[in-house]
Prior knowledge:
Strand content: 5-15%
Number of strands: 7
Structural class: mainly alpha
Radius of gyration: 25 Å
Largest sheet: 5 strands, parallel
Oligomer: single chain
Low-confidence stretches: 161-169, 255-260
Amino acid sequence: MTETYADLIAAEDVLLFVNAAVTSTGQREFRSQAYQQRLSLDFLHEYVRVNYRTVYAASLALDINDHNAARVVEQLLRTAGEASGEQKRTEGRLIAARLARLPPQRVYRLFRALRAAKVGNRRTRAILRDWLAARPDLGHDAVKYRAGLKTAARHFHLPLTTAAGTGTATGSAPPAAGELGDFLFKPGVRPRYEHPLLDAYRRAHYEQGAVYELPFTVAEGFAARHGVAREAFVERIAPRMTRLERLRTQREAGADGAGAAVRTDLSVMPLTRLALYALSLTTEERVRRRAELTGALRSAARRAAGPYAGTWGRVAAVLDDSYSASGSGAKRRRPLAVALGGHFLLEALAAPGAYGAWWTSGRTDPLLVRPYGPTPLGMRVIDALEYAPERLVVVSDGWDNAPPGLAGEVLRVWRTRLDRERRTSVVHLNPVYDADGFDVRRLAASVPTAGIRDAEDLPALVEIAQFAEGRTGLAELQAYLDRRIESFLRTYERSGPT
């Protein structure tokens, strides 16, 4: 009996960490400051790494956010002496697979953190070497992430003069031997570079035309130095922009005028990013572009649903658009964007014509939602249960306050008195980490709760939420993690480093 109880406690500890690693980025939230978020995360990372190192490493295969994935990698590399040989081998594969998915700027930031911590062991150097070898174009990195590559090369003694094995994203030849080292550490030594980006960077100091051969973020600084008008610069540099850069510049320019030169195809944007963009628009613009925005959101939701589209049967959703869904200055409207993206994804997952949504404000037009008013979750849960769904999904920060605690009581009575056969599956997904409670806020003990940061992760998080009901031990959770690890590594090794 003691072992069973200990396993349940261990499973709860692990789920606490997973919820935190999915939702929190150490930034300010609506009800907690950034320092509180950071302190809470620091404790959880240390606690789980020390007590459940194998599971701590396995979290890299889950849908944790990039901030915490980088933290996990850093902690594993800093404490390599605590791991057994078998653990190191598994951790190495997981780290390589996760680094391949992280944005390059975050990886370079990670290696700067390792340098500051004076970590330079053979294992870390090998992982860095392999990641750099898999980069599509180190010349591009030398221009766009100059400080990061320079720091990594110096601290980890990377022989850049022989850094071959790098193709290029633009189809040009890799940097010639010695070029990267000279570019990073001996600027001005060469009159020209064979690699087109390295030479464009050199020429951009005095030649305005070379600016438009550079990545957008690098070219911006040179354009300002040359006094190029913003609109003219944006129009000419548009072909070199990434999708996110196009979206950002489109928002900056507005719906009319120069924005037309850099308009991005919204139908290929990720669901949560697209929801954030839609919520950033004025009500008038959302109404004017209703068909475009709705079509793009539904297209993104269908992509996120994948093979599960239409398989969830009758689905009801309770979605939080109360004032707290406005988030914070660091995460503006993020909780509301998750709810909006979740609405369209649940619509795609439900059987055709078998989806109902209830917003806490009572609004019925999802495209026009805005963060306003209290959080009457209890009343909306009652409305949703009257729909007689097979699945009820609540997307909310859990601060049920109109009246306080009604949602938890409704769900308790529903589960213990009215639905003992569990005909309706209930899951609460919370996009906000509660730093004081070291977890996401829950509605009721009988309702499984999981943290969520991106709406597209909803199907996987509904699956992991089953472990949060308190009836599943560490063995079942470990078996689930083993399956996720196997799938994660198989996908990485089949597709190869990216």
